[in-house]
Amino acid sequence: MRPFNLSGIGGFLAKQGILVAFALFIIGFTIANERFLAPDNIMGVVRSSAILGVMALGVTFVVISGNLDLSVGSMMSFATIVVLDLHDQIGPALAIPSMYAMVLCLGAFIGFLVGYLKLNSLIVTLGMLSAIHGLTLTYSGGKNMDIADKEGTWFSMFGQSDALGIPIPILLFALVASVLGIVLAKTPFGRKVYAVGGNGTAATFSGIQRARVVFTCYLMSAFCVATAGLIQASRSLGSQNTVGQGLELEVLAAVILGGASLLGGSGTIFKTVIGVLILGFIQNGLLLVGLQFYVQYVVTWIIIILAVWLDVAAKRGKLWSPIA
Amino acid sequence: MSSQTPALRLEGIVKTFPGVRALDNVSFDVMPGEVHALMGENGAGKSTLMKVLGGIYQPDEGRIVVNEQPVVMTSPLQAKSKGIMFIHQELSLAEELSVAENIYLGELPKKSFGRVDWQKLYSETNEILGRLKVGFDAKTKVGDLSIANQQMVEIARALTVEAKAVIFDEPTASLTDAEKVVLFDVIGDLKTHGVGIIYISHRMEEIFRITDRISVLRDGQYRGTLETPETDEEEVTQLMIGRKLDLSRNVSHHELGDVALEVRGLECGKLFHNVSFSVCRGEVVGFYGLVGAGRTEIAETLFGLRDPTAGQILLDGQETTIHSPADAIEKGISLVPEDRKGQGLVLGMNCRDNMTLPQVNDLKAGPFVAEGAEIAIFDQYRDRLDIRTPGWKQLVGNLSGGNQQKIVIGKWLSMHPNILIVDEPTRGIDVGSKSEIHNLIRELASQGYAVIVISSEMPEVLHVSDRIIAMFNGEIIRTFTSDEVTEDNLIQAISGIIPEKVA
Amino acid sequence: MEPGTLSTFLKRGAIWGFIVVELLFFSIAGEYLSLSNKAFMDLDNMLLLFKQSAPIGIIAIGMTIIMVNGNIDLSVGATFALSAIVLLNSMTWPVFAGLGDGVIPIAWALALVTGILLGALNGLIVWKTGVDAFIVTLGSMLGYRGLVFMYNGEQPTSHLNWTLVDFAEAQFMGLHTATWFLLVVTAVIWFVMNRTVHGRNAYAIGDNRTAAINAGIRVGPHMMINFMIIGFLASLSAVVFYSESGSVNPNDGELYELWVITAVVLGGTKLTGGAGSVLSTLGGVLAIQLLRKGLGHIGADTETVNLVIGLILIAVLFLDRQLNLKGREALRI
């Protein structure tokens, strides 16, 4: 079997493959269409990636701690529907904190099941995906939710306004990413997340309260989902019940693309942001060169497989799997 | 033993890994109908040699000869087709499947359309099980069997083909005495059928009971072959470790301090019961017993990982309850766990982060981890324990076993515990690091730590302990001082033989 | 009694017990709450239930063998949609214009081959790259969906063939065509998993992969065959469903993977592989469908179905854990 040279180009590609791919895409699309690198285009891409991005930040914590969260999509729909409904009932100033509280309760419930009861996170969040979807439909009665007075509310600022020339969704994304990035990389809690995901038993033997760490990760994920729902609701000021449907897997794709292992213990916020931006730029670049939006699905597929393949190949030192 | 051509011969096998010469020109042979013991300390190269034989590794030099035919083996399956069978130490069974399916794993008899020929499968399996005189049949689900019976299933696999050589890797590790007798009968049976047997074990009494010759490996090198009837334990040991076995007792008595830990009538379900002992500051108490005697479980209970069902734990004379490892750490108890890789370390994390993991909450500069303080702690213990690593950024998974163990010990020393529990501190560690760790344990005691050492190695407990507690089947049989302990009375105690009460 | 026996027993029979409870509950509650006068356990109602279970059920049977094997397939929904498009579109191809109804078997075959190829591609990638099946099929879930859109943009693909519709709506011995397909698939896959070497090896691989490799079982081909089986079944499900409906939207089949996995887990298949049964999966599928119909029957909002199923899934997981607890002396990890 041909050894996979770790010190050569292959090794570099395997380790930094995601950045290299990112660079190649940018170069390629720039050549194909010079508008690609125009500031307003870049701004547009980041802005439209913000919702997916904010959710991916929270899921990064969950994945590093060694779990999955498939419920973020339907939880985002829930957040959007609830905040839009409450907006007209109790006003935006109360609606926003109420929505956050409700979404955090859902996150706490999942965190309790996975952290304290130690139930399998894939199944729990799969169940919650369905349950929260049902909750949303029950809440809204299956109808679309719209704000009555779309012109006269300051609520639209989170999705539609600019500050310092930068759209608010981008600022929110950047703010949450910076805070969570620092929490993960620099605080004792971040260290514990890596330990719990890397080897939960050893973490327990080191006196780390694993259940509490996992619980907190799901709370953070819920917080991010609530923020994403806020941006979504504020941007559109009206929503279907299924606005977040399918996002859970796209979010996971971004996190994996960023290099987090589904086994836990590895990944960073910075890399997740890169993963999110790659997805955003691919979509945008393909549109700019005149392809339909769905071409990005195929491209994303190929990139995910290649990225993870190179990663595992570098770890085992062989390009091809040794499975007979 | 009519034929004098070896069933299996290894000639000048060399296998290197980056930086290590794991096997250096190893040659030995197994005659048909011979039981040939392969001995050596952990890390001597036995398992590498077996992986070469099993086709998992390819040797860099040398060749393998079966029945005077040189062979190249690239997979376990190929080894099997050449008549070389392995009985693995780690069970490699599919627990949800039946005994028959496990025994014929990969070789289920087929009928048309890829159907399994169940009749043939069950009848052949039952025949083999009959030879092993076991109390279960072909249709039993493996997951429902005891560990010992699962081991018998593993052994039954070797009987499915006309084996030329069978390799037993620590087969008795989890067998009871009665089951061992059956195993030895099976080995005798294979012998009379002219099968060559390689028997890997650390247990001298077994080696001398059933083997014909003994080959010894040390540091990847072949050290010689002895005729079993013409040698004794001492000669073998000397060959294995390159010097005489150090059975010296701990003599350095010094002043003991107050009682740091006292345990009264502690019980945890069926795991252990009526356990009472105390440990003073400055004292090393050794726990000696067979695997499964309940020693590790006591340590885990003291560390808050198990709920005791009865009894009291007193720290510095105060009765206390330990709810969790975090609680135990708070109360000054540290545990160096038995399973270094599974329980002690996060292999994917660097050395520094592993070492400071239990106190990461306390090493803060504002809301952040104080990395400078962490590096200082790491440097201090790297120097004190002589941990050899390129730097703190090195991933722990890349270190050798001895250095990994020192990281774990360093991690717990840096917590400045009152009571330090070390469970199998030198398992899988080379001889040099072993004595370093022993010296360290003694030194810690002299500095006033109360130390509990759990070990399955008699020289180790004898060497480091002030007192030795012998356990059998979840009970303390006897407590020895280092003056009264002898190898004989210690072995008797851990076999459950209660000494006559001396007035 | 050996520890775990009760748990095993409950696991084996639990899903059928649950179905009985559902039937009783909805029959009794229906007496008081139902708006219609029809009994819940009406024969026609039950026959319809089987028919409606078929699309998800056929795929779930395939997912059982994938999960027993220790893998997972998230791309079944997209495979379902793509096969449906091939089925309906190929009937309009000019090449087959002169064949009349003779195009039907060709269209079926093309659709089924599509499914097998998509499955084989997944299996090949899992085998050759060693990337976890979860990630591989997460990727192809997106990729195959992209292919669905590329085929006909965002337009629905339609073609109604009345011979096909008649066939799909036919009832043989009281059971609908779709029901027959579900039952035959269940029987065949049951046979494959319990009576053939391939099936038993699939269990062994999921149970203890290292042991299987050491015993010389070729893990890769077995996994690939299983991915081809689920690809085939996903397209068979499409064939059965779209023969009748005659129109496919590019979004069809979305979230099928999640429904299918829910049914398989309800049926007691172990997530880590090595244990699971096709019959219990069938039970899981029926239980979900029963719940949908039952809640409708007693006049509950159809919206609550998702809520109830999600919570039941979590409750099952919780019960399973409680039954497997080792008591106080266990290590608290």
TrEMBL record, chain A:
GO terms for cellular component: plasma membrane. It is found in: Cell membrane. It is a multi-pass membrane protein. It comes from the Bacteria. Its main location: membrane. The keyword Calcium does not apply. GO terms for molecular function: transmembrane transporter activity. This is Ribose transport system permease protein RbsC. The gene is rbsC_13.
UniProtKB/TrEMBL annotation, chain B:
The keyword S-adenosyl-L-methionine does not apply. Signal peptide: none annotated. It comes from the Bacteria. Keywords: ATP-binding, Cell membrane, Hydrolase, Membrane, Nucleotide-binding, Repeat, Sugar transport, Translocase, Transport. Residues 8-244, 254-498 form the ABC transporter domain. It is found in: Cell membrane. Its EC number is 3.6.3.17. It is a peripheral membrane protein. GO terms for cellular component: plasma membrane. One of its GO terms (molecular function) is ATP hydrolysis activity. PANTHER family: CARBOHYDRATE TRANSPORT ATP-BINDING PROTEIN MG119-RELATED, GALACTOFURANOSE TRANSPORTER ATP-BINDING PROTEIN YTFR. Belongs to the ABC transporter superfamily. This is Ribose import ATP-binding protein RbsA. The gene is rbsA_10.
Automatic annotation (TrEMBL), chain C:
It is found in: Cell membrane. GO terms for cellular component: plasma membrane. GO terms for molecular function: transmembrane transporter activity. The keyword Nucleus does not apply. It comes from the Bacteria. Its main location: membrane. Keywords: Cell inner membrane, Cell membrane, Membrane, Transmembrane, Transmembrane helix, Transport. It is a multi-pass membrane protein. The chain crosses the membrane at residues 15-35, 56-86, 106-127, 134-152, 172-193, 223-243, 303-319. Part of the ABC transporter complex LsrABCD involved in autoinducer 2 (AI-2) import. Probably responsible for the translocation of the substrate across the membrane. The complex is composed of two ATP-binding proteins (LsrA), two transmembrane proteins (LsrC and LsrD) and a solute-binding protein (LsrB). This is Autoinducer 2 import system permease protein LsrD. It comes from Roseibium album.
